Amino acid sequence: MNSPTPQQARISIIGAGPGGLVAARILQQHGIAVTVHDRDPNANHRNQGGSLDLHDDDGQVALREAGLLDEFFELARFEGQEMRQLDAEGTLLAHHLPQADETASPEIDRGLLRDLLMTSLDPGTIRWAAPSHRSEVRQAAHGLSRSPTARRARLTW
Predict the structure, then answer these.
(1) CA angle, corner 48, sides to 127 and 99, nearest 5?
(2) What span, in angstroms and rounded, lies between the C-alpha atoms of 97 and 83?
């Protein structure tokens, strides 16, 4: 079997969450075509939840690789790095107050992070209302599905 070169590959990512969107961004930066399939009907279909801490040894590494670390720092809340440890009675056992220049684990609202990642992708990268179950994706790829969701996704494989 001959594998396609990276520029000829057709890569699909299932899910427009932070991991899928960062992966898509990194692939696009390397000239590799990618499509992100998400089952939500559109980007604003549901609330993305609360905030995330992105640590300098994991989430920030991915954003650096994606070329988005500076933009992340513009949106992040560094005061979210303050930590307190209390015992069962509420007595303060430890208190970490971050330094002004500390960037180890700032918080960001999930919606802001998702917007940052989505807008960094080429237009049309994300296909909304796409099938999400593996068998649905496989059937849609081979034209076997009669699912309205799969037809709306217009998968091209």
Answers:
(1) 125
(2) 7
